[in-house]
Specification:
homotrimer; mainly alpha; Ammonium transporter fold; 3-stranded mixed β-sheet; Ammonium/urea_transptr (chains A, B, C); transmembrane (chains A, B, C); transport (chains A, B, C)
Chain lengths: ~425, ~425, ~425
């Protein structure tokens, strides 16, 4: 009889102890391995006698802050409120994201900036850590309300590690281009979460129960998330690109792609409903698909027309997904996609990867001139043809899907 | 008898078909006409061998993002929630703004950056498109709840075209200065909307009905919009100015003007109420009038004192307008100004234009030194006297008022 | 009998007349004393023939806008909604902050940029004015609901003046380093507010009454404030530092410190509650303590490990403060800390000052190289040893505590 309260007490201690354990471990690992890089270390920076105007920090910081705002305000508010899991969920996404930032700094640091026995950090590591936290929050959009915080923390541990490995394989080993993360962030995050969700399938989960109360204000809060994502997505896709025309072009392509996905979402949402009325869930999500779909090709010479066409397609596919595919995923495949991440991140992410295959395969020296070096360095150096780059891009999508589905399935066990 | 459901069905199809038609048309026009400019095209940029530090993109992008946030968060939340037209209105402003961004890229592109048979786009076209979307949202603040989404889309088509023409006449033909758009954005948007509203006059529209429920949380949402507009207005006015001291000075003038309009709004709001209590509608709107009133003169040598005095005056006039003028507009002129745009954008916009006339007329070579070239290039080149510039500014206001009122009246037919 | 309505009328006129008086006085003082500086004056800037790329404005403006957003969205929403004093409080913090921006421009201008008989303003004066407005809003977090708006305006008058004097003594006379304001903003603002609160002690103030209604949505609004503060704090601490590696390092340290304070807050909040549930007030506040605690040392060579350890400690102390210290402050010392500013700003501010003493004392030429000049100019010039700098830092904390407590006690009379 004493067992039950004792077990309850130990369950109560799980979350705080896990937080303390994880924070303790990352603090020790930071002490051993993590150092300022040449731009953040006082002695290293001034030794080279750099001028302030050449400090990459100033070219990247505004984009970084927009990404940071998107991840925390956008994903936090949109995903959580959408299905009305209420306040504690906002709190937990906050915790998971904060842990993901630290842990991915270590994982990505070992893979990307480890030399002389240390990890070196600066603005790039902050942007990359935020990207990883974004993928984690996407995944949890599929499993909200199905498992407890200690389990979520453990899954974050796994997902961040796999995210780092997948990104390393794609960008460093395969020479794949994926600045805005159609593959590494959206496809990976979505399918990891969906396969997690499959393992955690709970037939008794009633969606309707969560929808009954306070829908009006929840929708407004979700709309704050939507608008934040919409306005900052150009910064998200362009944050890690080469400086100059590439970053500028990426922001421009994303901006116009989003306007087109917004129009196609309104059109399709009204068409597929029986009575011509708009479904606010479509507006809050599918309107953003234009940002996801140019994640890979946004830095390429997609052309302004290409950006509009891509956005239009993404909004259409995403809205149709909400209407027709999500119910099938649950009934046939036992995948309960709580926030519809398959429609906002999964399908538009795969589409974006395929669009990247196409645009990379069509790239020519004429179209890029000397700018080819910034976008496709391997083609510029003559180590790869455009067709070969396209094939590598396609293989990168395949690797991402394998790692995400296997990882998600394992993570749920 | 079969006619009625058929008509209902055709009405249901109006919005989606219009969205698809408009998106299809802009996509085709983009394919034919729109190209990257020299800063966003990989081949063009690298051909000139520019360094990153000289890329204008990096000087303008942070301001652009603030403008983008203002237009979507600020105007969206403030205008809609103010009169509690609820969620669907937020959705529609989102749709209208997205369409306005595409369509104004085409209209403004033909007028401003059309050469070699193409429109060339980059960060400036994104800023200008956002400015135009801002004017559209201002106008719809006067007609919310009075007409359906298909009509709103058609009016956007008209207003964007007229906005582009008015801006072209003022800036390019008349040589008028109006960086922050006191005339081109606020005066134009407000009077276009007010004259639309007059044509759409609905005597049975009961304002009180919309105010009864959920006022507390609606006011908080509106306050989010107000604060976003307040903090980002310095970026709005300075986004399109010359780089260097001009942009810096514009942000500074706007910042201080807003502090003064805030104090005068609180003072006047308490004075004009019978019982000393503040009216939240005044705070949410009139406090922002300081941003509107320095839209033209913010880039000029207004002096810090001038910024405070202008803000003080604008807050005063705007608050008095809510109290005394808005009821008269409705009862005598049948103009139902749903969100009070005449007080926030109309009168402060006209005041801002007149302040621009004054400050331009007082400009001297001594006060501006070599900086005269950036602010008044025609005076610097000796093609115009300060007095002549002032007269041109005044004529610009006249043109704006004519185009806005005629356009608004036609738009409502 | 006629006296009572007359007195009521005069009370109604207090706020508007005070607003008009203050606005009139600052406008006259601006006219006499305030001028554009060499970066905002058209003639002065172009005279020197500066290039745009060297314009400090472009390095500082993005950080400035984040600070501006933090002060108005963050402090406004977080502090007010936390204890549910409702809409009018948001309005008043808006008024107080707007007045503080003008008045602190004058006070700080006389102390810092007064030459040739004038105060010279630009981006630095906007950042400094926002910092001062932040301190004012922190203080009012302790006295919300205890006194009327006219009294709050008078206290702002006093606090802004003392804030300027304290900052001048620390930074200019004592050569203390405090970029992110652990001492000048957080410690000063918190203890000024707490001693004000003591004088305004109202035993009948029932906290519980304010908590009963609409907690769910109020918590969501407060969470918007929390997330804004969390994402923009790296900009807050780095806004006034030297350009280059120092600003970059400060943002990095703050970013990681906040992740650690978030994890320790979740751990401690669950541990100290009887039933393992999280207290949302802890999450909304203590998670931010990591930003406060590196306010002084963030620009120093704190190391990434140091940032995590500091954040961890701050989150722990802050959460324990809410649980154990706040009730004692009220019962034993008659300090009703309405929003818990002692836990978010007071203790973490003092901790941050002490951490600054430690890190300054440990600074060596080896660790900073030529970068020592940017962080500790007096040590670099050989005018001071590291130990002497540490002692000056400690004395700076002492001065801040004395000025804040004496000022707060006087302000309440």
């Amino acid at each position: 009889m004493a067992g039950s309260p004792r077990r309850a007490a130990s369950r109560r201690l799980q979350l705080p102890l896990l937080c303390l354990l994880f924070q303790g471990a990352t603090t020790i690992l930071f002490a051993i391995f993590v150092r300022y890089n040449h731009e953040t270390d006082a002695a290293l920076w001034h030794w080279g006698n750099h001028s302030n105007a050449n400090n990459e920090f100033y070219f990247r910081y505004p984009s970084f802050q927009d990404v940071h705002a998107m991840v925390f305000v956008g994903f936090g508010f949109l995903m959580v409120f959408l299905q009305r899991y209420g306040f504690s969920s906002v709190g937990f996404t906050f915790l998971l994201a904060a842990f993901a930032l630290q842990w991915s700094t270590l994982v990505q640091g070992f893979l990307h900036s480890f030399y002389s026995g240390h990890i070196h950090i600066g603005i790039e590591s902050m942007i990359n850590a935020d990207f990883c936290a974004g993928a984690v929050l996407i995944s949890f959009g599929a499993i909200l309300g199905k498992t407890g915080p200690p389990q979520l923390l453990l899954m974050t541990l796994l997902e961040v590690a796999l995210f780092g490995i997948n990104e390393f394989v794609l960008l460093n080993l395969l020479g794949v281009r994926d600045a805005g993360g159609s593959m590494t962030i959206h496809t990976f995050g979505a399918y990891f979460g969906l396969f997690l969700s499959r393992v955690l399938y709970r037939p008794q989960l009633e969606k309707s129960k969560h929808r009954q109360s306070s829908i009006y204000h929840s929708d407004l809060f979700a709309m704050i998330g939507t608008i934040f994502l919409w306005i900052f997505w150009p910064s998200f896709n362009s944050a890690p690109t080469s400086l100059g025309d590439t970053q500028h072009r990426t922001a421009l392509n994303t901006y116009y792609s989003l306007t087109a996905s917004t129009l196609s979402t309104f059109a399709l949402s009204a068409l597929v409903s029986g009575d011509g009325r708009l479904d606010m869930v479509h507006i809050q999500n599918a309107a953003l698909a234009g940002g996801v779909v140019v994640g890979t090709s946004g830095e390429m010479m997609l052309t302004p027309f290409g950006a509009l066409a891509a956005g239009f397609l993404a909004g259409t596919v995403s809205t149709l997904g909400y209407k027709f595919l999500t119910p099938i995923l649950e009934s046939k495949f036992k995948i309960q996609d709580t926030c519809g991440i398959h429609n906002l991140h999964g399908m538009p992410g795969v589409l974006g990867a395929l669009l990247g295959v196409l645009v990379a395969g069509l790239s020519t020296h004429d179209a890029y001139g000397d700018g080819l070096e910034s976008v496709f360095p391997l083609i510029a150096k003559g180590q790869r043809s455009a067709t070969s780059q396209a094939i590598h891009q396609l293989f990168g999508l395949f690797v991402t899907l394998v790692l995400a589905t296997v990882g998600g399935s394992l993570g749920g066990e």
